[in-house]
Amino acid sequence: MYKEALRPAWVEINLSHLDYNIKSIKKKIGLDKELIGVIKADGYGHGSIEAAEILRENGVTTFAIATFFEAMILRNAGAKERIICLGLSPDIYADTAVEYDITPVFCSYENAKAYNDAAAAKGKTIEALIALDTGMGRIGYQADQIDEAVEDLKKVAELPNFKIHGIFSHLSTADATDLTYSREQEEKYNRFYDAITAAGIEVPYRTLANSAAIMRMPSTHFDGCRAGIILYGLYPSHDVDPADLSIKPVMSVKANIVHLKDVPEGFSVGYGRKYISDAPARIATLNLGYADGYPRPYSPYGKVIVNGVVCPIAGNICMDQCMVDVTEVPDVKVGDEVIVMGTDGVNSITADDIADATGTINYEISCAFGQRLPKVFVR
Ligand SMILES: *Cc1c(COP(=O)(O)O)cnc(C)c1O
How far is the CA of 87 from the centre of ligand 1 (A)? Predict the structure, then answer.
């Protein structure tokens, strides 16, 4: 039980595993490629400041986040590294990018001009990445409309207080068994890069790979590799080969039993009475619910580990609490530690288990658990 958590439920972040994963990824991409630590969404729920610290210890000098506010959190915590913001930001926020020395991405002259003007007003120069849409369909210059992009980028290149640092694009199916589409994206990326550099636009830095491409597409590693989910010890999908990269899960979720009762046959538990005991049973209550990222649709499939025994969730997960059928656990007591996600060395419940049961991906599970639960960092 952690007094400092102020509640009997918490996320445990294993920083040794994070360190292990970073070293493993660095080994995979090689010394000549930069590892960009993707720590958006509070490090996928793991704590971006602490994740940044372990990345820093491993010599990582570039982080990526998704919003300017996430960059401000890192700067306010003392981060001196390059911080790339992977999402577009409207012109009115350009002054924030300058003030916090953020490397934004852009795909229009107008947006680049706003950054230029904000930088000029402060007597500074801002560096940015070209966003290129090679087939994700999200943001960026259209890779097939090279002439238009070249015209636009030529104007951008003349902005005095704005410097094109590099170019990025994002792969949409690098985690799928069939890599045909990813290869097409890679080709478009290369074609676009060749065309704009041939037109005289200087683009010193190239980055394309995400976690899946780090594992499976070495030709996309270029200058920098954007590692997200694999930092946290989770694989980007079931279709990648774990043998391609050794990683360990960083996040566990734990809770202490706060209440225990023996109930007769026919006793109902929770909203909607989805659990009704068919025999005398023992029910434990945990201080953890869907507002903590424990998905309500997991209720019918949910399992936790109590003193080495895998136990089912009883009834619907509530907003802030849930109940567990601990009838099969010998000598169970109030205060016993329950593994909601993680392993006791024998049994394990993974982010993928929870994601698979609820029709989502492990990314969403770790992000959600990171929202409200206190974090306890262990080495
Ligand atoms: C989130 C994100 C990444 C990291 O993706 P992973 O699959 O977690 O490695 C890389 N690039 C961009 C643009 C992203 O939005």
Answer: 11
